[in-house]
Amino acid sequence: MRTRDCQHICDESSPGIGEAGRTGEWRNSFPVIDQTKCIPVRQSKASCFLCWLYCPDAVISKTIPVQINLEYCKGCGICAQICPAQAITMVDEAEFCSEQDS
Amino acid sequence: MQILDGNRAAAQGAKLARVQVIAAYPITPQTPVTESLSEFVEGGELSAEYIAVEGEHSALAVCASASMVGARTFTGTSSHGLAYMHEMLHWTAGARLPVVLACVNRAIGAPWSILNDQQDSISQRDTGWIQTYARNNQEILDSIIQAYRIAETVYVPVMVCYDGYILSHTEMPVDVPSQEAVDRFLPAYRPHTILDPATPKNYNLVTLANPRLNTDGILCHGYMELRYLLQEALQNSRETITKVGQEFGKQFGRDYSNMLWEDKLDDADIVIVAMGSLAMEAIVAADMLREEGHKVGVLGLRVFRPFPKSGVVEALQNARLVLVFDKNISYGLEGATCSEIKSALYGQRVNPVVRNFIVGLGGRDVKAGELAAAVNRSLPLLKEGALNAEYPEWVCHI
After folding, report:
1. How far apart are the CA of B86 and the nearest CA of chain A, in angstroms?
2. Partner-chain contact B220 A6, CB within 8 Å
3. Mean pLDDT score, B83-91
4. Beta bridge partner(s), residue B21
5. Which domains does chain B have, with CATH numbers?
């Protein structure tokens, strides 16, 4: 497959999940949610969702439980910073991988 | 036939091309172009949006944006204004938007100069625009009409350059074609892509080094493939420029099928090369030298980008001495035209001695007699084995 087949004359893309590529590969740390601390989970009702609101890549769901799509999460850590319950922790990818290996 | 200065010829060209959006910032010596066009719009002679902007960067940004939503756009500038547009020049070409820009050639500071040379547009040589240089006011008008047809065929913006004052403020007879005739020659603009809320798209987004699979599984260009396409478009534009020039000739009686102008080249072994109005002065110099018994011809560069390499080689194949006069300088090397001529000849078994002269910077008058004298000084080089000088000779009083 050659890029000429796309027939674009200038750079273009259409809105869609993953249109910018697998941006999760850029990450060096990833968010982990402690569901026991997460406010909507504890209250069993739609509330808070500040992580969903602040995520610049729109990879956090507004659901119970809250889910993060790690395929596209770039690991910026804004969700961990904004969470009022401190339910989200950023885990270093390299350390995580070496722990998994051992 | 009308008596028009170069700026009014340019404005007439844009009007006849039925431009839809004009954004320009007045700068000497381009100002009368903006004045004429705003009068046309204000007086109802031209149905277009004239958008007043706070500077040249914005002027070209407006034109590029309007071009993206399907409008035929025009702007004009000079010197520092063109320099200020630099970023948007790259952007317009990279986005492949067929904007047409009239560049009224003027020197660049420091020190301040409002007078003519070609340093401004030569400095923008590598921004991906097609560049043409007019010899007289008729060529300005004709070039602007053709520029739209070329730009909208190959999707490369076109800069129509002409010398400040020497052409911009000098009146000459100009044949102004009828609107009906231009309408027959120039079809409506058909954009290659169009920004439309009905089908949301993101154009010219952050593009990484490698090609990218989009959500439909199609492999899309990376940055480098898009640059390749721009180079390919400029290479292939030679064919379009020739074809459009030929058709223009058929319809209006003035042929532009050659990217070069030639004068008395048939038997010439000495050739003067120049660009813009200087090529006209060179014809006078060649006539003077012919009276002295020298076989001198003139090669005028009409199109500078894409550079007409094969045409130059063909035109210079019988030349023994080539004298390139530049109204610009690539500091630390030589005049830009001279470098291009030498590059075209390399490896083509055409090996004249090439001399470069820097003339006419910052409005310094260039007389035909000075061109002839420079040629006379170079005649001893015609003897066998002469080598090219390392650096150009300056025609000035230092």
Report:
1. 19
2. yes
3. 98
4. B49, B73
5. 2-185 (3.40.50.970), 260-394 (3.40.50.920)
Structure tokens at B188: 């409506």
The domain made up of A23-101 has a fold known as Alpha-Beta Plaits (3.30.70)
Q: Does A9 touch chain B (CB under 8 A)?
A: yes
- Would you state the pLDDT for residue B244? 98
Distance CA A23, CA A74 (A): 6
Check residue B367 and give its pLDDT. Answer: 96
Q: How many CB pairs (< 8 A) connect A and B?
A: 72
**Distant-in-sequence, close-in-space partners of B29: CB < 8 Å, separation ≥ 6:** B7, B78, B104, B106, B114, B116, B164, B165, B168, B169
Q: How far apart are CA A66 and CA B173, in angstroms?
A: 76
- pLDDT bracket for residue A11 (50, 70, 90): very high
pLDDT tens-digit profile of B356-395? 999 999 999 999 999 999 999 999 988 877 888 999 999 9
Q: Which of A5, A10, A22, A26 is most worth mutating to test chain B (most B CB atoms within 10 A of its CB)?
A: A10
pLDDT of A102 higher than 80: no
Distance between A17 CA and the closest CA of chain B, angstroms? 7
The answer, for A10 touching chain B at a CB cutoff of 8 Å, is yes
Q: Identify the pLDDT of residue B383.
A: 82
Tell me the DSSP string of B148-167.
HHHHHHHT--EEEEEETTTT
Inter-chain touch A10–B200, beta carbons under 8 Å: no
Note which residues in 43-82 of chain B have CB less than 8 A from chain A. Answer: none
Please tell me the distance from the alpha carbon of residue B149 to that of residue B151, in angstroms, as a whole number: 6
Q: Distance between CA B374 and CA B358 in Å, rounded?
A: 11
Question: In the Cβ-directed half-sphere of B381, how many Cα atoms lie within 13 Å?
Answer: 21
Give the span between the Cα atoms of B78 and B244, in whole angstroms: 26
pLDDT at A99 (0 to 100): 86
Is there a contact between B338 and B326 (Cβ–Cβ < 8 Å)?
yes
Q: Which helix (H) or strand (E) holds B297?
A: strand B296-301
pLDDT, one tens digit per residue, over B168-189 is 999 999 999 999 999 999 999 9
